Amino acid sequence: MKPLGVAVAGLGRIGVVHTEILSYRVEGARLVAVTDVVEKLARTTGEKFKVKYYTDYDKLLSDPEVEAVFVATPTYLHHDMIVKAFEAGKHVFTEKPITVTVEEAVNVVRKAEKHGLKLMVGYMRRFDDAYMEAMKRIREGSIGKPVAFLNIARDPGAPPGWAQDPKLSGGIFLDMLSHDFDMARYLIGSEVKRLHVMGSAVLYDEIKAKGDLDLVNISFEFENGVYGVLHGSRKSVFGYDLRTEVLGTDGTIYVGNSVDPNLALGTKSGVLFRGVQWFWSRFYEAYVREDQAFVKAVLEDKTPPITGLDGLRVVEIAEACWQSLREGKPVSVTRSI
């Protein structure tokens, strides 16, 4: 089978990860080009991986060797870049979240349908060994019937400047916690029906100044009756901290850091258990598997495992979170498609 010609658009930290993976780890893919508005970054990356480089995204899209584009730019650029790729006849893998708003996400999903092209959203935790095993165990009935989803998500620090602006990133609910909403839907196998948010900005003045939050607690209910609780924080002084539990009628699934069951303490001086400093040290192989899954879906003309509709559902949840915060009460999650 002829390899799929792929390009990476956006060469920040995650774009470089995809570039490396597509160059060496994905059978059936051939990296042919990269692009970034920073000329030095585009040139040095292109030279390093021995591929063409562009600073003009439109020129990359006109390259006949490019059959699929990996969009790894800031969130506020996703909508226009994805739509342009579809109009140029290219399949698209986009980093999460799919877009900033529900309106944009609906348009992207419709464009993919109109042009008959593949669209996959990069929620790599679905390809992580521990989460895949958790899903398998839940579906097999190892914990009986799930009744509760509990999740802690804490990043080591504040995000880059643009991501602190909710108008550009969707704020903490979309920029950071969209992974956790997607995993909740994935493990429980149901849509979020209703939610209630409490939160504030107490950790970073710069985040508060932009109108975003850095500490939130979210209670929610799934359509199948399962209840969930999600705690998110932009600060964890000892490193990346992610823990997930699914409580069932006959047991509990635990996914996350290796924590002493009696006590774990994290301070600036260190932590009593083995922490993870940043997300790709935990999830690198999951990134590899998601890239492989997208290329396989295109080559075999199958539906990608994480669709544009999955991406849209998460944006709907995030917008409901903002509504709940504004109104100070529980709200229902509105389905747009």
Description:
It is a single chain. With 337 residues, the chain is α/β, with parallel strands linked by helices. It has two domains: 4-123 and 285-307, Rossmann fold (3-Layer(aba) Sandwich); 126-278 and 314-332, Dihydrodipicolinate Reductase, domain 2, CATH 3.30.360.10. It has twelve helices and 15 strands. The strands form three sheets. Strands 12-11-7-10-9-8-15 form a seven-stranded mixed beta sheet. A six-stranded parallel beta sheet has the order 3-2-1-4-5-6, with helices on both faces. Strand 5 (91-95), helix 5 and strand 6 form a beta-alpha-beta unit. Helix 5 (102-115) runs antiparallel to helix 12. Pfam families: GFO_IDH_MocA, GFO_IDH_MocA_C3. Residues 131-253 form the GFO/IDH/MocA-like oxidoreductase domain. This is Oxidoreductase. Residues 5-123 form the Gfo/Idh/MocA-like oxidoreductase N-terminal domain.
The number of helical segments is: 12
Q: Over the alpha carbons, how many angstroms does the gyration radius reach?
A: 20 Å
Assigned CATH architecture of the largest domain: 2-Layer Sandwich
User: How many structural domains?
Assistant: 2
The percent range for strand residues is 15-25%
**What would you call the shape?**
globular
Main pleated sheet = 7 strands, mixed
CATH class of the largest domain: Alpha Beta
